[in-house]
Amino acid sequence: MGMNGFRFENGVKYEIFIGLKDKDTYDEVLTVDSFKKILSEICTQKQLSFTMLTQFGGYTHNKGYTTETSLRVIIIGISEDELVALGDKLKQIINTDTILITRSEIEYSFM
Questions:
Q1: pTM confidence score
Q2: From CA 95, how far away is CA 57, in angstroms rounded?
């Protein structure tokens, strides 16, 4: 424990990277604001703490190279079962084939 009772705890941080392009039309069907509203409703219902960042990126897929708006959802304090269920639901909502999930061991503290 540091000064003034400050203490780091060990935990796991998950990040979900999800593009907004529909897998069938290759158009961004949902807006960032629409996705934000849906994500907020899901996380509120399940009492999940999250942060969402908007990004832009590019990648190669079976039809060539594309760029798109992508979102990064950061979650600390979720079980892997809840994470998989959330990822599946987000894939279904956006109608995408793939999302990327990363897992990092972290130390954190709320001050």
A1: 0.87
A2: 18
Q: Residue with structure tokens 């899901």?
A: 42
What letter represents residue 53's amino acid?
Answer: L
- Name which of 58, 77, 76, 56 is nearest 67 in CA terms: 58
Rounded Cα–Cα distance for residues 71 and 74 (Å): 10
Q: CA-based angle 37:104:36, to the nearest 5?
A: 5
Domain boundaries, the chain: 25-106
- DSSP H/E element including 44: helix 32-46
Going by their DSSP bridges, the two strands 9-19 and 50-61 should be labelled as unpaired
Show the beta-strand stretches assigned E in the chain: 9-19, 50-61, 64-76, 100-108
pLDDT (tens digit, 9 = 90+) per residue, 46-73? 999 899 999 999 888 888 898 999 999 9
Architecture of domain 25-106: 2-Layer Sandwich (3.30)
Q: Which of these, 34, 99, 98, lies nearest to 73 by C-alpha position?
A: 99
CA-only gyration radius of the chain, Å: 16
